[in-house]
Amino acid sequence: MDTEQRMARETRAIWATVVCFLLGTGIGTLVLQGNPRPVAGDGSVGIPVAVVAGVIAAASFVVSTLLHRRGEHVSMPRWQVAISSLSAVALTIALAGVTALGVLLATEVLGVGLQGLELPALGGGMVTGVAGAVGGRLTFEAGIGLRTSDLANLLFSYLIIGTLFAMLTAADPRWWERNFSQLGIGAGAWAFNGTLVIAGILTATVGSYIGRDLHRIRGDAALARIAWVVVLWAATGLALAGVGLLSLERVVVLHNIVALSALVLFIAAGVMTTIVMPGPPRALLLTTAGTALLIIVAVLLAFVFDVYPVTALEAIVIGLALLWLTTLVRMLAVLTPAGTRTSARRSLLRG
């Protein structure tokens, strides 16, 4: 891509930002008509701003994808088009959720520092415009080109944002004495449970992109094994979403079973991906061994030596697992050639 093309792309991104700001300001002002509202809490601008910003971010991603990836599916077989389109839809939903939750966390933090501040309709509209512009700009860039490593980083960041927001809005301030699932109980349960649902969609999408990268490396000869990789990551995402949908408050046993299934499926998906990868790279094997060792040490410190509660152990294990996933997709990115690879197989099931 030459300088002129890069400049044209940046110009489009700037115009997209302007349009998102204007849309956000206009829609936000209309939605927030009436008495001035606080920044956070009951009856605040938080949820309306988050919803509008999320929708604008999703729309920006769709427009960017259609603009920059037009004709990408022309020579692909139907099954490959279907998988690519399904991944795009899932990613659109996930980006809307990520944007909305990011806005909600920002308003909660601002509410602490700006206690007593109330925004009229136009002021709330301007805030909505800024949120829409930021989210729209980022998702417009994502539509231009999104790597698997970008998605893994997004998943990592999103889980942190979602968990922080759930902590701030938790019904029980001493939830941490038991486990993270306690955040999914009570009036603010939707924050934590919703985070898990969107995280599940993101995990499945990461798996689809991993399959895409493996196909670019291995080609049609490895499609059967690649299909297993994608299915396992999709099952992991489904289980993670299930943890949020089947909250601890309603179905304790089923919630615990699904949570354990998500962990087992994550390990299975990671092992299968490593097997299908060329090599696999020595650095990845060392990272895997180191991660496993650290998890064993963390478990011993929690249950044998009683150094910290289960909640801390869960945070450590999840953090290490996501760091390992980040390493995996970055290694995969090094091996993956640029450009789309069209399959020569007319059917995924038959050669």
Quick tags:
single chain, 351 residues, mainly alpha, 2 domains, two-stranded antiparallel sheet, 10 helices, 74% helix, transmembrane helix, transmembrane, DUF998 domain-containing protein
Mind telling me the C-alpha Rg?
Answer: 22 Å
Helix content bin:
over 70%
What is the CA–CA distance across the termini? Answer: 36 Å
Mean pLDDT reading: 93
Order of helices and strands: HEHHEHHHHHHH
Number of strands: 2
**Beta-strand residue fraction:** under 5%
InterPro entries: DUF998
Pfam families: DUF998
Protein name: DUF998 domain-containing protein
Organism: Microbacterium aerolatum
Describe this structure in words.
This protein has 351 residues and is an all-alpha fold. The protein folds into two domains: 1-146, no CATH class; 148-351. Helix content is 74%, strand content 1%. It has helices spanning 3-31, 46-68, 78-113, 121-144, 148-168, 189-218, 223-245, 252-276, 282-303, 310-335; strands spanning 37-38, 118-119. It has a two-stranded antiparallel ribbon. The two termini are 36 Å apart. The mean pLDDT is 93.
